[in-house]
């Protein structure tokens, strides 16, 4: 197959969708397919793709109608004999889809890790006619999209995310670089992600105040950067939690953090199939997650930790305290590790993706 992934996300942005795109491109390339990644020049996505050995082309797509972007895509399509384009933003699908319809070009499908469409005339007439299919990572998104009645049952395909499993001999994160301690019974609650309103970190900090008041020697580590960093740091100070809640910025080696975590928390208000939670479970870290899209397909409530309502600090605090005190904490982590490694391996994802894309190309022929 000759494939082109396009993601016009901002230069400095990097999240689950971008991580999936680079990983999928790399896996398909290693299976012998001709794969390119199209993104903005000098972006984090460009740098990460090159680190994975994936060929990169640059596009300038900033709006749903982009003549320059269409011309750039057209040039690559012709030079590289592209058979199928996977767009990761709605505007990528619209620009590539309109071009393809006009020139009789390659198939154009959309990959959506979160719900990007609503049942409205806007999407029915400005998106669906330009798109040849959708890949998503959760059954809940497929169920919602199929309810629109715009396409047949095969149009939306669920392909669960997969993660590469890191060996357990990773060097553990040095906790003393964050806080001083002498005791060996320190407990660590870890959370990672962009410091944005979507991620719900304000509820985690509020919950931390309740947990710290009841549980000795517990420390909360939040790894990530974003627009809310200043506001969250002020919240920590105002709550009197500077000794127990630590915002440590972006960390390139999350695995080392997971090695020292007793539990992992995903306090998000909405998600797709959260990679951070998947990585934690695959590393054997019992977890607490809000009941956002895809989580119930990823972990089993009470078996691997707890699934709780979103936006509820009290509920979150109770779940954290309960899990920290659980005598079966290690068993929960081991069950989570086995579950995720069996169901969500990168090998499974790559095979399912390859078969689906090849079937679309074969069907057109």
The share of residues in helices is: 40-55%
Question: What is the rounded distance between the termini?
Answer: 13 Å
What structural category characterises the helix and strand content? Answer: alpha/beta
Q: Could you tell me the mean pLDDT?
A: 92
Q: Helix count? A: 14
Shape: elongated
* Widest sheet, order of strands: 3-2-1-4-5-6-7
**Total count of strands:** 13
Order of helices and strands: EHEHEHEHEHEHEEHEHEHEHEHEHHH
Strand content: 15-25%
Major sheet description: 7 strands, parallel
Poorly predicted runs are: none
- Rg over C-alpha atoms, rounded to the nearest angstrom: 22 Å
Which helices and strands, and how do they pair?
Blueprint lengths: L1 E5 L9 H15 L3 E6 L4 H8 L3 E4 L8 H14 L3 E4 L2 H14 L3 E6 L8 H6 L7 E3 L2 H8 L9 E3 L28 E6 L8 H14 L3 E6 L5 H10 L6 E5 L4 H5 L4 E4 L8 H8 L4 E4 L4 H4 L6 E4 L4 H12 L4 H15 L2 H19 L1
Parallel strand pairs: 1-2, 1-4, 2-3, 4-5, 5-6, 6-7, 8-9, 8-11, 9-10, 11-12, 12-13
Helix pairs in contact: 1-14, 3-4, 7-12, 10-13
């Amino acid at each position: 197959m000759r494939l082109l992934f396009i993601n016009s996300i901002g230069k400095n942005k990097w999240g689950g969708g971008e991580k999936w795109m680079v990983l999928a491109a790399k896996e398909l390339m290693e299976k012998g397919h001709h794969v390119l990644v199209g993104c903005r020049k000098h972006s984090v996505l460009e740098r990460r793709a090159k680190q994975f050995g994936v060929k990169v082309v640059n596009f300038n797509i900033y709006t749903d109608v982009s003549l320059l972007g269409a011309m750039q895509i057209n040039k690559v399509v012709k030079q590289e004999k592209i058979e199928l384009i996977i767009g990761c933003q709605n505007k990528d699908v619209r620009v590539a889809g309109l071009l393809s319809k006009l020139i009789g070009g390659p198939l154009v499908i959309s990959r959506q890790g979160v719900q990007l469409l609503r049942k409205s005339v806007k999407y029915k007439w400005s998106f669906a006619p330009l798109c040849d299919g959708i890949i998503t990572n959760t059954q809940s998104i497929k169920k919602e999209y199929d309810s629109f009645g715009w396409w047949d049952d095969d149009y939306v395909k669920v392909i669960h995310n997969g993660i590469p499993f890191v060996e357990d001999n990773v060097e553990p994160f040095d906790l003393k670089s964050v806080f001083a301690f002498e005791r060996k019974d320190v407990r660590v609650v870890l959370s990672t992600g962009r410091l944005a309103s979507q991620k719900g970190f304000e509820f985690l900090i509020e919950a931390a105040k309740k947990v710290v008041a009841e549980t000795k020697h517990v420390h909360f580590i939040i790894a990530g950067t974003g627009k809310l960093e200043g506001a969250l740091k002020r919240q920590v100070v105002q709550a009197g939690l500077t000794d127990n809640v630590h915002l440590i910025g972006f960390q390139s080696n999350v695995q080392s953090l997971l090695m020292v975590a007793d539990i992992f928390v995903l306090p998000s208000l909405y998600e797709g199939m959260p990679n951070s939670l998947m990585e934690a479970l695959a590393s054997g870290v019992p977890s607490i997650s809000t009941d956002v899209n895809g989580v119930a397909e990823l972990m089993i409530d009470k078996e691997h930790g707890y699934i709780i309502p979103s936006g509820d600090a009290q509920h979150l605090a109770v779940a954290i305290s309960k899990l920290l005190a659980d005598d079966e904490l290690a068993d929960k982590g081991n069950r989570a590790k086995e579950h995720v490694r069996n169901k969500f391996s990168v090998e499974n994802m790559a095979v399912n993706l390859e078969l689906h894309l090849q079937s679309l190309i074969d069907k057109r022929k």
